[in-house]
Design brief:
There is one protein chain. By secondary structure, the protein is of the alpha/beta class. It has one domain: Metallo-beta-lactamase, Chain A. It has 10 helices and 12 strands. The strands form 2 sheets. A 7-stranded mixed beta sheet has the order 1-2-3-4-5-6-7. A 5-stranded mixed beta sheet has the order 8-9-10-11-12, with helices on one face. β11, α7 and β12 form a beta-alpha-beta unit. It is globular. The termini are far apart. Bound molecules: zinc ion (2 copies). One zinc ion binds next to β12.
Length: 302
């Protein structure tokens, strides 16, 4: 490991862009960084998702590496000022690029990166990433899309330092084709990735409304008192309440529309769910969510 350090130090100085990330301690073992619950743009430069550091006494485990090399470097630097510990493991919750483009930063330090085998199928490595096309070139500089070094296909328990870490794979498509969550029983903390959104409208674009509701029912059974979603600030045990209400209400309104024989366009115009209008990203996401859910639910009628 030691011979990697000079290279690492050099790369850090070359990564000029600094994110002003504010670490927030959730409990004695968990510190997270909360991004603006919004789309990626040149104002937030990809600081629009949540990432966390779990202190296992001997080292940190990082849950989601963030949206770029510079993001990962800035979070790492902030954590070293809180408590200087090495990172020995990075876990990627799912395949959407805002959550794992920081992998390259950790990979160059020789840190193991763990993700589901969905990365083999659904991480598109041959087109420019969404981050690359939406944030400033300075903020993206140095980012090299880097797949997990180890991909797993089913649940696993890991013992790292003082912590037992449970990795749970959702059994069906939910927010993405294969979502993985991280549960730390000792800290009663659930890192739910994008299965949990709050403070903004979620994205159903690559998901399945039925699978997502089922996944949330499963997560409820873990008994977590701290729940960190992929987007949004709320982290108490009610962190998934808003999303659950959004998805279940959408499903019942679309099923009703299908029973009445409404077309997809008529349904999109009808299922406005105005009580969610004040949420961020309602204007850009809601209609396409109804469309995606309609396409899933119409199969139930056939
Ligand atoms: Zn996602
Ligand atoms: Zn996300």
């Amino acid at each position: 490991m030691r011979y990697l350090l000079p290279l690492f130090a050099l790369s850090l100085t070359l990564s000029a862009y600094e994110f002003d990330l504010k670490p927030k301690r959730l409990n004695p073992n968990v510190v997270c960084f909360f991004g603006e619950p919004n789309a990626m743009n040149t104002t937030n430069n990809g600081n629009m998702l949540n990432t966390c550091y779990l202190d296992t006494a001997k080292s940190y485990v990082v849950i989601d590496s963030g949206s770029s090399y510079a993001y990962a470097a800035s979070a790492y630097k902030a954590m070293q000022t809180i408590k200087p510990l090495p990172v020995t493991l990075v876990i990627n919750t799912h395949v959407h690029d805002d959550h794992w483009l920081g992998n390259g930063f950790f990979a160059q330090m020789g840190v193991k990166v763990l993700g589901s085998d969905d990365f083999e199928h659904n991480a598109d490595m041959h087109v420019p990433t969404r981050m690359q096309t939406h944030i400033s070139p300075e903020a993206y500089a140095g980012t090299v899309p880097t797949l997990p070094s180890e991909m797993i296909s089913s649940d696993e328990n890991l013992s790292v330092g003082s912590q037992l870490i449970e990795l749970h794979m959702m059994k069906q498509k939910a927010h993405s084709a294969k979502d993985m969550v991280v549960f730390v029983p000792k800290a009663k903390t659930l890192f739910a990735g994008d299965l949990v959104f709050n403070d903004r409208v979620p994205s159903l674009a690559t998901g399945d409304i039925n699978g997502w509701i089922r996944a949330l029912d499963e997560l409820k059974s873990y008994g977590a008192t701290t729940i960190v979603g992929g987007h949004g600030y709320r982290t108490d045990k009610k962190a998934m309440v808003m999303l659950y209400a959004y998805l279940t209400q959408m499903r019942s309104e679309i099923r009703k529309a299908l029973d009445e024989g409404l077309s997809i366009d008529e349904t999109i115009n009808k299922v406005t769910m105005s009580e969610f209008k004040s949420l961020r990203m309602y204007d850009t996401m809601h209609r396409s969510n109804v469309e995606a859910a309609y396409r899933t639910l119409e199969w139930e009628q056939k």
